């Protein structure tokens, strides 16, 4: 009964990684068959670049996720840890997002080349998150320094209101 959770997580991770691999393979096969087979007359060198970019955008996050989901064994070969929980957020969630966005872009770019612009969501979101992180370290203006007259009066009024006794009206019966 020991390490049942680790065994269960190992199996879940193996199943999850298999499903991701099927998704990646399915999207690549559909793209190659439809784009090269059916729409071969409109296939150009830009589409080869797109295929290489999407393949790299699949491989890099998939390898990271595979390394995270890898179980840990003791020297005797016993299972110690079943790997990282793939259902958690954070970097694991971001890597999943990259794979899912890539599959959407790859499949939808069969219809129109304009769908490649959706890839701008990834660096846009990264810039948004980095700006939020950097913003915490920047000075926030006049916090401990001088405060203007209006803010001082407002603060004093709030302090005065908070220090007053509070009376509760009750109904007389």
From TrEMBL:
Q: How does it sit in the membrane?
A: Multi-pass membrane protein
**GO CC terms on record?**
endoplasmic reticulum membrane; vacuole
- Pfam families in alphabetical order: TMEM208_SND2
BP GO annotations:
vacuolar protein processing
TM regions (residue ranges): 20-39, 45-62
InterPro entries membership: SND2/TMEM208 (IPR008506)
Q: Where is this region: Disordered?
A: 142-173
- Supply the alphabetized keyword list: Endoplasmic reticulum, Membrane, Transmembrane, Transmembrane helix
Q: Where does it reside?
A: Endoplasmic reticulum membrane
| Compositional bias segments (type: Basic residues) | 163-173
Family indicated by similarity: Belongs to the TMEM208 family.
Protein name (record): Transmembrane protein 208
Organism, by scientific name, is: Genlisea aurea
- Provide the taxonomic classification: Eukaryota, Viridiplantae, Streptophyta, Embryophyta, Tracheophyta
